[in-house]
Amino acid sequence: MNEAGGDEGGSSSGNTAQETEDKSPGGKNLNKLSAISTGPGWTKVSCPCCVSEHVEPLVVVRLGEKVHPETKRWLIRLIGAPQKDGGAALLAHPGEDASGDIIMVSAPRCTLLRATEELGLCKTYYNGEMEAFSYNDRQHFKDSDNMEVFLTLAEREYIVKYELDGMRAQRELRIPGMADNYTLQHRDNIWQKLGSARVILDTFPLHKKDKLKALSEAWYSGNQLAQPLDSVNAYFGSSVALYFSFLGFYTWSLVPPAILGLSITYFSGEVQKEMVDSVSGSQVQVVDDDAGPGHMVQAVFSMLWSTVVMELWKRRRSSLSYRWGTLHLAERFAEPRPGFHGDIGVNPVTGRMEPLFPEWQRDLRMALVSVPVVGMFLGLVVLGMVCFYWGEAQIKQLHQDWDSLLTETLLYMPSVLHIVYTNMLANVYKRVAQTLTEYENHREESAFQNHLTAKVLVFTFFNYFAVLFHIAFFKQDVPLLRKRLASLLIVSQLVNQVTEVVIPFLVDRLVNAPHKTQREDDPQEDKFRNQITLPVFPGLFGEYIELLVQFGYLSLFSCVYPLTAVLLLINNLTEIRSDAYKICKLFRRPFSPPAANMGVWRIAFEVLSFVSVVSNCWLLILSPRLRELGREGGMSSTDILLLAVLVEHVLILIKVVLTVLIPDEPDWIRKKKEHIEYTSMQALKQQMISKES
């Protein structure tokens, strides 16, 4: 990394440059390069190509109120020190008040370029093709001398976080300005330790007012239907842009099943009566839950639609990741994630000194703590389901006794209360799952995220679909299933819109607005502090969960409620704009790591797609009409069941064939990817030859 700034022990950049001047011939010229500031108040750089008159603040670090000025000065020098001395090779500024609680951080050109190579980002080569960036070949990449063009704003900000998180103490060191017991041990993660000691309270990227305004006007303020995904990627990063791309792709993919559902409802008198009955809450006779041709068409279409949508999305995702330079992200033996802790030792794989934590202890924690706690929450789901059925029975009995408009309205009360209960339980469980995964102490960030996602997915599937599967497979009550699904689709969407948009909007306008008033001539630090008052962006976890549940409702149960896709389409058309408004206006700007795909979420969607075959085939078996047709054809109940199993296997085979026939990547992307891998191997060979010579 760039050897800029001072050293870990506390010498300033200027002192380091002076020592070099005294010991080197021609030191006067070297000192001129080393001591020149990149901007007023910023730490100095030693690399001539990193010198700049203008420095763009990228990240703000907020310190604790009781942090001593000596500690702040030490931290600024540490941020500017080279990595070999435990620093981050970045640029730091103390703010307008040298003794204040803010440090502004930016990055010099060399640090940005080296991190671009480490992350495995692809950039435009001189011939116009995308290639994996190589620092040694940087002069052949377009705009590599202009960081504001070469890297997106989100990439530059993430690199700053990447370098700060990677700082490791090179020796035992006492933190200046603090008690003697606040010491850093060899190979300690400095940023994580300073956070635990409350020296550092927050680290967050800054909103850029002009760029945010332009993005807002192109995204959600106008009447445009297409999303400015390239602008979203440039401002918020590829992981956020991929989510919004998937949200838009999935939303428009709902148009065919919505048209089919409307057609089935319009042309089928029985389906119209079922829809009215499901909304009114009146009791449906057995004859009304017959699965006519419309239901069968809806079931088969949903099963095939779910596969085609996911396969087409994978092709679109590969095109986007190529365009955004994330198709060839590096996989390497990375440093442990900041939250990882253990006894310092030598990593037997990398040979580095770092915290070590035995695998058996992690397995023991998962077996004795995580699994029982997750099981307890699943038990709470079952308890809620039992209470729902008890309440449903009591209200039905009350309606039979009184038969009034009030009791007919109360028929929906158990469903509404159960929906509220499951949503509250899900919110509590998310925090518990985060705590459990932290306690398991995973070394890699990818392992941490995979275990966290797995916990949430198991609970989500059980929480949202347990009642529906119980009604369909055990109670075999299609009218109740239809009414329950209608309740979920209508009430859940209303609850989500209120909790995700209305409440944050009101808080933003009524509570936060008086504290955010600012003028153009206000000090820069005051503008930064206004951003500190914004709540932290909660991430995309909840958004993906919401889409996964929607996808499950449609692919698993839409044959009993053909208007499912219609309701989801209406909801998602507003969801795109409301989610865009939230991330732009209601939260702090998040760090966004480069991402090439949706990760484990794609697997979850594909699993639901295959489960939909079993669900829809079973729901069709429950139809009295199909059973009657089977008996007229001389088939027993066992024969009908075996026929359903055969049809199920045929449909699964068709889904597998579709998966094979639709490649995950377009042919041109596959060739580009192979070319990038080939050129990367050639570049590595050249580096090895250069080192040997």
Describe this structure in words.
The chain is built from 25 helices and ten strands. 36% of the residues are buried. It has 693 residues and is mainly α.
Notable features of this structure?
single chain; mainly alpha; four-stranded antiparallel sheet
Count of DSSP-assigned helices = 25
Low-confidence stretches: 1-37, 282-291
Shape verdict: globular
- According to DSSP, the number of beta strands is 10
What is the radius of gyration computed over CA atoms, rounded to a whole number of angstroms? 29 Å
Q: Oligomeric state of the chains?
A: single chain
Structural class: mainly alpha
Main-sheet strand order equals: 2-3-1-8
Report helical residue fraction: 55-70%
Beta-sheet strand percentage?
5-15%
- Quote the average pLDDT: 81
Question: Short description, anyone?
Answer:
This protein has 693 residues and is mostly helical.
Write the layout of secondary structure elements.
Elements: H1 13-23, H2 27-35, E1 59-63, H3 69-80, E2 91-93, E3 102-106, H4 109-119, E4 122-124, E5 130-132, H5 147-150, H6 153-165, E6 173-174, E7 183-184, H7 190-196, E8 200-205, H8 209-221, H9 229-236, H10 238-253, H11 255-267, H12 269-280, H13 293-323, E9 343-346, E10 353-356, H14 359-402, H15 405-410, H16 413-440, H17 445-475, H18 478-516, H19 524-532, H20 541-557, H21 564-586, H22 600-621, H23 624-632, H24 637-661, H25 667-692
Antiparallel strand pairs: 1-3, 1-8, 2-3, 4-5, 6-7, 9-10
Helix pairs in contact: 1-2, 8-21, 9-10, 10-13, 10-21, 11-12, 11-13, 11-21, 12-18, 13-20, 13-22, 13-24, 14-16, 14-17, 16-17, 16-18, 17-20, 17-22, 18-21, 20-22, 22-24
